[in-house]
Specification:
Elements: H1 16-30, E1 37-38, H2 50-62, H3 79-91, E2 101-104, H4 107-113, E3 123-128, H5 132-141, E4 144-149, E5 168-172, H6 184-197, E6 200-204, E7 230-235, H7 237-240, E8 248-251, E9 257-258, E10 261-262, H8 263-274, H9 280-289, H10 292-319, E11 323-325, E12 331-335, H11 342-353, E13 355-356, E14 358-359, E15 370-374, H12 379-394
Parallel strand pairs: 1-13, 3-4, 3-5, 5-6, 6-7
Antiparallel strand pairs: 2-8, 7-8, 9-10, 11-12, 12-15, 14-15
């Protein structure tokens, strides 16, 4: 008789964002026609920029002519896009080669797929609060998971603990959900720790484009000796609005080896075995992001979202509520008022002023008592949400 993967039985009852959607659906069934201000899930509200749209149209036209038609793409990514991304890193002073760049269908997919590189007996270290997929993907694989809690006392940026060591280390900077960003000194401590212990860091850089402080690293490969201990996973979802088109990239250094195995070469074999590559049309759109005009246009979109974050922060300042993030990240991580738990505050916002955010406890136990607001909504909805909070919470 077939035995399913019994590790699924060890997962929490529901994935965080699925649980939120269930609560929203229940509310709308009881209150049909009500408009909710959705500041929970980090989906973007601005369309793809003009430069990307032009490239997508051209790529579609290419598929209509035999001379320009493209079928299966190289599994690791089209050379034109791999080379473009490597050049983007090099312009920022980070030495990356085309062969170290792998094109993916998005960071979320890649965060799960990349675990194929590691034996199931390996352990994973998650710094919490954390994107819940880090934990769930490893639970599904049956891995032992260790947790390091962070909080106000360390600005949600804990340092390594030699008593808590694992084979895989997850670092997200800027962090989802807290918005905290490691400086070079803090990130160097983790790089040294990983090299000393033989661990591999999975560095989630999905929000690097939101960093406005030039003194802060946007890539782990800005840190010396990171190429012998780290893999970087990036996304165009929030950077360039590709949530609906799905495109990301992963950097695996050719110098990264463990137990005599080269992880870059292993990933080439994995991709050529398990994928047929990302579509030509989407990759052409992705390449347009890295042109001079594309960069100008996506930075305008990022500035729009950053202004949304400022609107939220100004409201919280007036209310005297403690919060983190917002400046170098698209999320505002606020402390729940009146001693509420995070789910109590979620219900309070939903039922009283029709605002949806994300309960902090969904990102780990140390997220209890906090609440995440996304700045990816429209300007009108963000301003309205801030106004409703000011009026309601003052009472």
């Amino acid at each position: 008789m077939l035995k399913p993967n019994m590790n699924y039985g060890n997962l929490k009852e529901s994935y965080l964002f699925y649980g939120i959607s269930q609560k929203i659906n229940e509310f709308l069934e009881k209150n049909p026609g009500e408009k909710l201000l959705r500041m929970g899930i980090g989906d973007v509200s601005l369309p793809l920029c003009e430069e990307v749209i032009k490239a997508l149209h051209t790529a579609v036209d290419d598929q209509s002519e035999r001379a320009r038609f493209h079928g299966y793409m190289p599994e690791c990514g089209a050379p034109f896009l791999r080379n473009t991304i490597a050049a983007h890193y090099n312009k920022r002073g980070v030495a990356v080669t085309e062969n170290e760049v792998f094109i993916s269908s998005g960071a979320s997919d890649e965060l799960g797929d990349i675990l194929d590189l590691f034996d199931r007996s390996s352990s994973a270290l998650v710094i919490e609060p954390a994107y819940p997929a880090y934990v769930d993907a490893n639970v599904m694989a049956g891995r032992r998971i260790l947790h390091i809690s962070s909080g106000e006392e360390n600005g949600f940026l804990p340092e390594p603990d030699k008593n808590v060591c694992a084979d895989i280390i997850y670092i997200c900077s800027p962090n989802n959900p807290t918005g905290a960003v490691y400086d070079r000194s803090g990130l160097k401590k983790w790089v040294d720790f990983a090299n000393e212990s033989g661990s591999v860091i999975i560095f989630d850089a999905a929000y690097e484009a939101f960093i406005e402080d030039d003194s802060l690293p946007r890539s782990i490969f800005e840190i010396s000796e990171a190429k012998t201990c780290a893999i970087e996973i990036c996304s165009l979802s929030k950077t360039a609005g590709f949530t609906g088109t799905r495109l990301g990239y992963t950097v695996i250094p050719e110098d990264l080896t463990r137990s005599g195995m080269n992880l870059n070469g292993m990933w080439v074999r994995n991709r050529t075995t398990k994928t047929n590559g990302v579509s030509y049309i989407i990759q052409k759109g992705g390449a347009a992001v890295f042109t001079a005009e594309g960069q100008k246009q996506i930075k305008a979109s990022i500035a729009y979202y950053k202004e949304n974050a400022k609107i939220i922060m100004r409201a919280l300042d007036k209310l005297g509520i403690t919060y983190f993030g917002g400046r170098n990240a698209p999320y505002v991580w606020m402390k729940c008022p009146f001693g509420m738990t995070s789910w109590e505050f979620f219900d309070c916002m939903l039922n009283n002023i029709k605002i949806v955010g994300t309960p902090g406890s969904g990102f780990g136990s140390c997220g209890e008592g906090f609440f995440r607001f996304s700045s990816f909504g429209t300007r009108e909805d963000t301003a309205e949400a801030a106004s409703r909070m000011l009026t309601f919470l003052k009472q």
